[in-house]
Specification:
The protein is of the alpha/beta class. It is globular, with a radius of gyration of 19 Å. The model has no long low-confidence stretch (mean pLDDT about 90). Helix 1 (about 1-10) packs across helix 3, helix 2 (about 20-25) crosses helix 3 and helix 4 packs across helix 14 (about 300-310). The longest helix has 19 residues, at about 80-100. The strands form two sheets. A seven-stranded parallel sheet has the order 1-10-9-5-2-3-4, sandwiched between helices. It has a three-stranded antiparallel sheet with strand order 6-7-8, covered by helices on one side. Helices cover about 45% and strands about 10% of the residues. It folds into two domains: about 1-55, Orthogonal Bundle (Arc Repressor Mutant, subunit A); about 55-310, Rossmann fold (3-Layer(aba) Sandwich), CATH 3.40.50.1360. The chain has 14 helices and ten strands.
Length: about 300
């Protein structure tokens, strides 16, 4: 319903032509046409667009235009606890992916994100293939007790989309740059990292300076002393263990030379970068990620979106 309203407003109120709508939202023009007809049939399009309860197009448009994004999706939730928020974000993320995946997508996926796990768990397998590949962007090897979560995330997304999974068998980071370079020089690892330049989209969480329980238990969380050093350098959050400051600029740290994952340059070169995150604990990191161009599609909750709009 949210996507239907968004398309109707773009076409009838903003004067955006159907081919441009299709390009912006990564769907076919024929689907745009069908959605517009359905909007009329449902009474949503009359002389004005009437959003149903729980849909917030004005806030979505404000955040999208204010931060220069391609799209914003607001998850509807009436509860503020993290469990309810996680469920709402997962449902909204699943709906977005099920609507916009085209079948030829090569999806890069960060390994350690409870929000992404909630998103993938909320997706329904389709008869038709909706993606070509799912490729891990960050090392997924860690504590064996929770390592299964990182691999399950990639495997589950591959199953529900019909894609081929590509796992990155390495830790999130190592002790020295020499150790990282030795791993990256391995031909089997190079075969994976070379595919990062061919991605059509990435699906990432946005991390705060307080590691999630999943990341902390994985054995891949940044140690407290390193976090303090990063905070001292102005870090407020990260995407794929690439830390940035309040303006979204990369924070200089030797950790950057020890991470086994996609580089900042490779990440920002991907055409569609979808970030799913919300809640007050992550607000500063989300705002910084938008300012720095780390993501160009944001799926978040209403309170966070309103806060982002107010901070413009």
């Amino acid at each position: 319903m949210s996507l239907l309203v968004k398309i109707a407003r773009m076409y009838h109120e903003q004067g955006v032509r159907q081919p441009e709508i299709a390009d912006r939202l990564h769907i076919s023009q024929s689907r745009v046409s069908r959605f517009l007809k359905e909007a009329v049939a449902l009474g949503i399009v009359r002389t004005v667009v009437v959003p149903p309860p729980g849909v917030h197009p004005d806030v979505e448009d404000s955040v999208r235009d204010g931060y220069g994004l391609s799209d914003v999706v607001i998850a509807h939730t009436s509860d503020t606890d993290e469990t309810s928020l996680l469920s709402a974000l997962g449902s909204a993320g699943a709906a977005y992916l099920e609507t916009t995946l085209t079948g030829s997508e090569r999806i890069g996926l960060s390994s350690w994100s409870a929000t992404l796990i909630a998103t993938v768990d909320a997706m329904t397998p389709r008869n038709a293939r909706t993606a070509a590949q799912v490729i891990q962007l960050l090392g997924g090897v860690g504590d064996p007790r929770v390592q299964v979560q990182a691999n399950r995330l990639a495997d589950r997304l591959a199953v529900v989309t019909g894609a081929d999974p590509v796992f990155f068998p390495a830790p999130g980071f190592v002790r020295t740059q020499a150790a990282r370079d030795a791993i990256l020089d391995d031909p089997s690892i190079q075969a994976i990292t070379e595919q990062w330049s061919e991605l059509s989209m990435v699906l990432v969480g946005i991390g705060s300076m307080q590691p999630s329980t999943l990341l902390r238990d994985s054995g891949n969380a940044v140690p407290p002393d390193m976090l303090e050093e990063l905070r001292g350098g102005g870090a407020v959050g990260d995407v794929c263990l690439r830390f940035f400051d309040a303006d979204g600029a990369t924070v200089s740290s030797d950790l950057n030379d020890r991470v086994l994952g996609i580089s900042v340059e490779q990440l920002k070169a991907v055409p569609r970068r979808v970030g799913i995150a919300g809640g007050p604990r992550k607000y500063e990191a989300i705002r910084a990620a938008l300012r720095g161009g780390w993501v160009d599609v944001l799926i978040t909750d209403l309170a966070t979106a309103e806060h982002l709009a107010a901070d413009l």
